[in-house]
Amino acid sequence: MGTRRHGLIRARKAAGYTQETLAIELGLDTTTVGQWERGKSEPLPYKRPKLAKTLGVTSRGLEELLAEGAAVVSRPSADYETWADDLDRVAVCLGRQEFDLAKLLLDRWTGRLIPSGDDRGLYLYGRSLRLLGDLRQDQGVLTGPMSARQSYGRAMAVFRELGADRRVAQLELQLAVLDEMGGNHEPAAEQYRQLATDTRLDARDRTRAQLWVGTALSKAGRNADAITFIKPAIRQFEALEEPQDWSVAFQKLALAHRGDGDLSQAGVAFQVALDHRPGDAPMQRVRLDTAHGHLLLSDPATADSGLKLLEGAAATSTQYGMMHQLQAISGIRRAYERQA
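Structure tokens predicted for DNA-binding transcriptional regulator, XRE-family HTH domain:
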């Protein structure tokens, strides 16, 4: 399965140039060749003779390549409608932790169809890479080849080329999440703190960044500081009418109060989260039951119930391949056994 490509792309590759090296050879800004190949601009007349010579084509041949490229860029692609529909399906699959189907849908495009150089194709390609990163993150594959970090990095390069600043900032936020998940809590908190006021992000993403400052600080043992970030985030989520984020924030607040030694306030906050469950998807159930089990282990009278909740959460994590969640549950169990 494939797609026609701008004639300049084929000629450039045949001549052994990358976009950057061709631009340098012609004395141009390194983004200019990419603009030509996406059909956003064309070489100026006085540049065309040198471009033709560099590519090893005649002047007439260059004009034919440019004409062919214009046709490719301007032609709407029915495949792109299907691609966009598949990405919507992937987002639904990830919400249900249906990882195998999500990967199958993504492989149709990232593995077989190369964007033809137009902005829409590149945008869909960037979205595909972002969703692939989300899939890997949910599976706990954070670093290395075929990891969330690799996919997010590739997506960021695409969106930077497109000038999609909001998408770039969202990916910076996701990379900070990976740092936190990898145990780099203080650096992640600092990245979140900067993104919480970044105007490239919308209000919801900025508020999530503020909440996650608290999450990272709580994991770093700075629970009193964490609470000062989590409480304003809760109020902001309420103002934004984001009930799922609002409920999750109460889970985070409960754990911060627990870490700060205030089990009474922890119980109050967690009851709010229980009364306003964010949903019943496997990931949501596991996160809620893990937090609940963690709290129950704090009291010897409820510790057995806490262990049962963690056992069920571990079984669900194993069933759906959520390895990071399973590792977190194992860590809670080990900490409890050391203290017991």
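The two ends are 59 Å apart (CA to CA).
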